[in-house]
Amino acid sequence: MTAGESSPEPKGIQSKAAAIPMSVVILTPDHEVHGIIYVSRSAKEERRISDLLNDPDKRFLAVTDARLIHREGPSTPRLYSFLQLQLSNIIMIHPAAQTLLRNTDYSRDEALRFDGLRIKMNQATSSANSAEAG
Length: 134
Hints:
The protein is built from three helices and five strands. 28% of the residues lie in helices and 32% in strands. The protein is an alpha+beta fold. It has helices spanning 48-53, 97-102, 108-133; strands at residues 19-27, 31-40, 60-70, 78-86, 92-95. The protein has one domain (17-133): SH3 type barrels. The radius of gyration is 17 Å and the shape is globular. The chain has a five-stranded antiparallel β-sheet with strand order 4-3-2-1-5.
């Protein structure tokens, strides 16, 4: 390699210049994760998250500036600068409200619908756990 030549990126690794940061909310069976994922600039805007999740070469999703909240009752959020989530543990993922409101391709209705679904899932989990305990 000559001076000034950069080494190629390893397969599956994108440079930050080729990716767009996106604030997201992710639901897993036990936790809610608020953080930032990096999606491809080359993907169609409405497909970026789907393309990332459906990549057959990926088993994990990298999340930066993550806030991990346990879905069972009140707890102190845990903060992580980097977190990897196994894709099979992700129940739902959606751009965060601030991303939706900033991005004209997403509507405020979508953000409200996602928040409603998240609340219903948390209530169903709480009800199921109360029934098991009782």
